[in-house]
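Dear colleagues,

For the upcoming journal club I promised to circulate an example of a predicted protein-ligand complex. I picked one with flavin-adenine dinucleotide because it came up in last month's discussion. The inputs are reproduced below in full, followed by the predicted structure.
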Amino acid sequence: MSAPLVIVGAGQAGMRASETLRRLGYDGGIVLIGEEPHPPYQRPPLSKKFLLGEMAEEQLWLQGDGFFTQNLIDFMPGIRAVSLDPRGKRLQLSDGTARDYSTLILATGSRARELPVPGAGLPGVHRLRAIADVIRLREAVADAGRIAIVGGGYIGLEVASVMRGLGKSVVVLEGEGRLLSRVMSPLMSGFFHALHLRHGAEIRLSERVVRLIGEDRVRGIELADGETVAADLVLLAVGGRANDELAEEAGLACQDGIMVDEHALAAPGIHAIGDCARFPSARYGRHVRLESVQNASDQARAAAAAIMGKPEAYDPVPWFWSDQYDVKLQIAGLAQGYDRHETEGDPESGSFSVSYFHGDRLLAVDAVNAPRAHMLSRRALAQTAGPA
Ligand code: FAD
């Protein structure tokens, strides 16, 4: 019997790859290996409704009961792939067994970046990436008086808005001079800063954390200027990094992400998709690694199509969303490198959009409570191609 196609990582990308392969008629064996104990699930609600307690665990599952049986997919939860031998086409697994594969798809996702400071391992210091993290965080929040969030990116700010909704005292400590600085324009950073202040969160910019203080558990945060910020719960939300070690140790090219081509191919017979992959974008003229549902789903479909002999170059219009308080932000495209922007609607009204251009070329659109502007911008961006 020939070896199956094996997918490592049972998240958004791994799940979509297995579904698409079956939909396109792949009739060989498929094995889906995931280190978490759950069925594949969606992560966006983890920092939104699921954290608030407004969504049950089962509502996170990407597929209903019976999917794996009906589709003859051998799902192996709670198992980690620990090493890869690309020449022998074999994986070593955490349960001591080995698996041969005919084709391999790496869909190992990303993890929370660590803050390399003393005290980061103290009880009371949290990260948010998986269901287990949210369950721990929810329990701890019940007794927390003051919550400090290190990192003013999407996850940090979404958690801040949930915590303010629960009536908690919240301080956000951001190292850069503005919120969301890696992904948003100064105008949008200013909008979100004002939004959080209006809802009673404290925002401190350009603050460098040097140490988390406490003996039996965290009691506060020491800043570079010697000041101490009191907190009995700390969330570290300082960005993500690719889970690319399995590939790197096997000799595959990695640069905070497994390097792949436009068909998500990393090496002969090995694809990498989703958060763990860095792909060439002709649209933006560089290699990009995206952490979004859009990318995980669409790149999974591209890899499956290539495996089925129907390759189509993957060069998407990236899109993403974030929910904070009563604001739904929807982003299409990547704004980096813009030289001018235009605002439509009035930010004061709470519904507006900002378009970013390089010369005449539209690069990206941020839409705030403006779903129509978001849909139109995705259509407009899809018509642009080639390097910006
Ligand atoms: P993942 O979904 O992370 O799945 C990877 C899986 O592989 C994990 O279960 C991991 O444990 C497993 N794994 C890793 N290594 C191994 C191994 N060696 N062996 C076996 N299994 C392994 N995106 C949006 O577009 N909008 C949002 O609003 C949004 N909000 C988010 C909020 C949070 C809190 C988080 C964490 C992410 C959010 N995202 C959002 C990002 C989005 O969820 C991810 O981009 C998407 O889940 C990526 O899918 P993936 O399959 O690449 O990785």
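Two points we might discuss: The CA atoms of residues 219 and 232 lie 5 Å apart. The first strand starts at residue 5 and ends at 8.

See you all on Thursday,
B. R.
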